[in-house]
Design goal:
Blueprint lengths: L3 H12 L5 H7 L11 E4 L4 H4 L3 H12 L5 E7 L2 E6 L1 H15 L13 E5 L14 H16 L3 E5 L7 H13 L2 H6 L1 H18 L2 H14 L3 H25 L16 H10 L3 E4 L2 E4 L9 E4 L7 H16 L3 E5 L5 H13 L8 E4 L4 E3 L14 H18 L7 H18 L7 E3 L1 H4 L7 H17 L1 H9 L12 H11 L1 H10 L4 H20 L7 H25 L8
Helix pairs in contact: 1-2, 5-20, 5-23, 7-9, 7-10, 10-11, 12-13, 13-14, 15-16, 18-22, 18-23, 19-23, 20-22, 20-23, 21-22, 22-23
């Protein structure tokens, strides 16, 4: 797309001596008040160079550029040059770009040749896939899609929690109270029951904790029976996880979890020793991080077993060697902030300057109305249950409204699951929130269903004007854009024009909510245009122009929803 900001910079460069285009580009502003123009250029920095007052300079430059065709109006206000872009120029270039690029509108080759790893979801094996996991799962999936859209070579990794002392606990619990047939019937809920029972019993008999640690050590050492049970728990868990991922439309390129790195940790410990970074502390081995204002990083326990931090260091080294990443992104809750600070600092102390490219992207926590979620106490809400309820409620609404029942099943899945995802991505990712059935199943207001319905409404209009729309796309150069110069049409076009920058900003800030809020704005602007104007009018030329704008709005919403991992139904 033509960058209007770049075009303005070229015009100003031709009319300002002593400033190059890059310097001018950095100074161009977008006024908070649209009444002050679409773009503004402050002249304060030119006062010394021209030995004139900034308002005088602004007036002189304004007189030079006022007749440029891309401007509808240029005026100076004090030291500012306020520029109002020609509506026809912006609308024509925006609609042409969308018509040309279609599903690729907003994409770029910004990341060409750069590999980005996105680690997200990462649930624990043999534990429920609960509502708390949805944050990492949908935020990570959206960040992956955004980076992929910008041309990066992206790799999706599900770093499964499939190792550690909790598996010693699970094996002990299964042996004492378990039944294989029960596990086969309902793997996760049954295993959760054993896990909860273990902690209840361990409060009465602390020796169970020692037994669990000893059992995990056997697993680490490859004992046959412990390994068999662990592999079975893992296989059954993955079946359940995969079912939920399929509902969400999410896939992964790798399921290499903690166990994958078990054989890779000994070389890491040796490297830390060889580089003089390990210190013994009460039989354990640590990296002292006191000078960096952090608690020590515990690398191995007194019994020689490893910890999360050891596996994360091994994983990062493996990923750099295997993928040679440009960025290695971790979508993990803010509770783990210190953990990430510690092991990334250890990487740097080991001499790996690429440690700075390992980036923790934290998010806020989910709690329940009755209190904090706790797996060990069995206080969880299963994610699959949330998704199924959302689909069921949507289907009830669809059938009540008399929508074509042939579409009911597909649309209810698209809208119900879309509503849950949209709710998760609507707010800044770092905010904590309390899970509420009423809120997550509320489809009123600025929600996913509202945006999806707007998309479907635009699609319906295009179906009704199909012939004229095809003619307009085919003969774009002869479309009469003067028919869509109204304020509602211009504001919608201006929003659509900004989509590529919105995508880039969301990538820079690792913040899908920027796109979520943006497509709500586009949907609202489209509905204002729809309300204010008759679109399928008798005047064929007017109809063509308006249908191109309808298409641009629909495609932009569709592309935005896709970046969030949400479907865009064409009929609702």
């Amino acid at each position: 797309m033509i960058s209007i900001k770049d075009e303005i910079a070229k015009i100003l460069e031709d009319n300002i001596d002593g400033l190059n285009g890059d310097e001018i580009l950095e100074s161009i502003e977008i006024p908070a008040d649209p009444k002050m123009g679409d773009y503004a250029f402050p002249c304060f920095r030119l006062a010394k160079q021209f030995r004139k007052a900034p308002p005088v300079i602004a007036q002189e430059i304004t007189e030079k550029i006022v007749d440029c065709s891309i401007f509808e109006k240029v005026e100076n206000v004090n030291a500012y040059i306020n520029m109002f872009i020609s509506k026809e120029y912006l609308i024509e270039n925006t609609l042409r770009e969308v018509a040309d690029k279609q599903e690729n509108f907003g994409s770029s080759d910004l990341g060409a040749g750069k590999k980005v790893i996105v680690e997200f979801s990462s649930p624990n094996i043999a534990k429920p896939f609960h509502i708390g996991h949805i944050r990492s799962t949908v935020i990570g999936n959206s960040i992956y899609k955004i980076y992929d859209f910008l041309g990066y070579d992206t790799v999706r990794i599900n770093h499964l929690g499939d190792y550690g002392t909790q598996f010693g606990k699970m094996i002990v619990a299964f042996r004492k109270w378990g039944n294989e047939d029960d596990v086969k019937k309902e793997p996760i809920k049954t295993l959760l029951g054993y896990y909860v029972k273990f902690h209840d019993e361990a409060e009465k008999d602390p020796s169970l904790e020692d037994e669990a640690r000893a059992t995990f050590t056997k697993l680490e050492n490859g004992e046959a029976e412990e390994t068999r049970l662990w592999e079975w728990f893992r296989e059954e868990s993955l079946k359940e996880f995969t079912r939920v991922y399929k509902m969400l439309g999410i896939e992964f390129d790798s399921y290499a979890g903690e166990s994958f790195y078990s054989a890779k940790m000994a070389p890491v410990v040796k490297e830390l020793e060889d580089k003089g970074l390990l210190v013994e502390s009460r039989g354990a081995k640590i990296v002292d991080l006191e000078e960096f204002g952090m608690a020590p990083a515990l690398i191995t326990k007194s019994d020689g077993s490893t910890l999360y931090i050891t596996r994360d260091i091994a994983a990062a080294i493996y990923r750099k060697q295997h993928y040679n990443f440009y960025k290695n992104l971790y979508i993990v809750a803010s509770q783990q902030n210190l953990h990430f600070q510690q092991w990334i600092k250890v990487l740097e102390l080991m001499g790996y300057d690429w440690g700075k490219d390992c980036i923790h992207i934290p998010f806020g926590l989910v709690s329940l109305e009755e209190g904090t979620m706790s797996t060990r106490h069995g206080r969880v809400v299963f994610l699959e249950e949330v998704l199924r309820k959302a689909v069921e409620k949507t289907k009830d609404i669809i059938l009540t409204r008399g929508v074509n029942t042939d579409l009911a099943d597909d649309v209810s899945k698209q809208v119900g699951i879309g509503a849950v995802i949209f709710q998760e991505l609507a707010n800044n990712r770092i905010k904590d929130y309390t899970f509420s059935w009423d809120k997550i199943l509320n489809f009123e207001g600025e929600t996913g269903p509202y945006v999806q319905y707007t998309h479907a409404r635009a699609a319906s209009i295009l179906r009704n004007g199909e012939n004229e729309f095809k003619e307009a796309k085919k003969d774009f150069d002869n479309v009469k854009f003067e028919y869509i110069m109204s304020e509602a049409a211009y504001m919608l076009s201006k929003l659509i024009y900004g989509f590529p920058d919105v995508v880039k900003e969301s990538a820079e800030r690792y913040e899908p909510s920027i796109i979520t809020r943006y497509i709500v704005d586009v949907a609202q602007a489209f509905n204002r245009f729809y309300h204010d104007e008759h679109i399928l009018v008798e005047n064929v030329e007017e109809k063509k122009a308006k249908l191109l704008l309808v298409y641009a709005a629909m495609q932009t919403i569709r592309n935005g929803l896709k970046l969030l991992g949400i479907d865009a139904p064409e009929r609702m």
